[in-house]
Specification:
By secondary structure, the protein is an all-alpha fold. It has 7 helices and no strands.
Length: 169
Amino acid sequence: MAVHLLVAQLRFARSEFVRCLEGVSEEDGGRRVQPMNSISWMIGHLANQEQGYWLIFPGGQPVAKALNDLVGTGKPASTPPMHEMWAVWRAVTQAADAKLDKLTPKTLQQFYVRANGQPFPESIGTLLLRNIYHYWFHIGEAHAVRQVLGHTDLPQFVGKISEAPYIPE
């Protein structure tokens, strides 16, 4: 069974994020160009969102328990080691893929239910869209940070979209 189109688009956005950051050194990854976040923070932050949406919200366990405290929305700025954030990102996205592979048009219309019995305000499909758009936002931010840091020969976007083409449901 093929994965849902939106899952394929998330995976494409992830691949473009990785492509955007190819060649960034550990030192540059940990530099914060204010008011923007460090690249290492962005990596962990996107892992944190995926961990929440695809592992914790459905009732599972986190891969990295302290991740939200380190790079969560609204938390103090941080500059974690980039190699650590890449390791967490890879572990989280691998675990998330097992959940994402099972999404169907029907499940995308459903809502997670909070511990208090109340549904989340956005459907699983809307969370998936939010996750995709979040990647593109941070691709732009990371690209800007790289430009300010003086990096040259940056990749052009959007890359090989033919690898994640539109497929009707």
